[in-house]
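Case study 2.
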Amino acid sequence: MLSVYELNEDVSVARYARDTTSILEDILKRGKTPIICGGTGQYIDALIFDTQIPQVGPNKKLRDELEKLNTEELVARLLARDADRHSFIDHHNRPRLIRALEIVESLGKVPKQKTPKLLYDTKIYLLNPTREILRERITKRLEKRLDIGMIDEVKNIMEKGYISDSMKKFGLEYVAIAKYLENKNTETEMKQEIITKSIQYAKRQQTWNKKYISLVETTEIKQ
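Prediction:
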């Protein structure tokens, strides 16, 4: 699932699950074991559980309107429209907040999920490094990505009409690097923003991953 979509395509969880499931099934038919490595927990859940994903297409007009709001305003709007979803959503995850409001706009509320059931015989291995190791690895990964040309990659994307504000769907690194190329921050500030936000994102992943312990055979690897 690398390099399969165009930059201007909006890929929902439902589409990702549909496209990836055919790959998983092909691997299983060949007697092999698929390894899913990641990443965004909601997308992994869509592959391994019988999750009911609302079939609500992208609403560009609404998304453009919501993107103008800050995160606190998005949280407040969701509370007013769907208090149940507000209680369980990550209040720092802008894409998920916007998607929830998009579903609310279409269906009136985000449908409640039933207790998930596994679709496959699944084992999960959770890496749980210390904060010091996490920071060290994130820093090394960033330096390696910059060394092999990530700034040029972002330049190429910007030549297609993207700016820092429209880079969010590609990842937090792309936003920070685009801001650097727009002279909105220094190289040092760009690196620090990526490291800090990556650590914050990793912490949210660790919180999300805790639920697997009660649902799936899980091995936690301390580091």
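Residues 150 and 186 are 16 Å apart (CA to CA).
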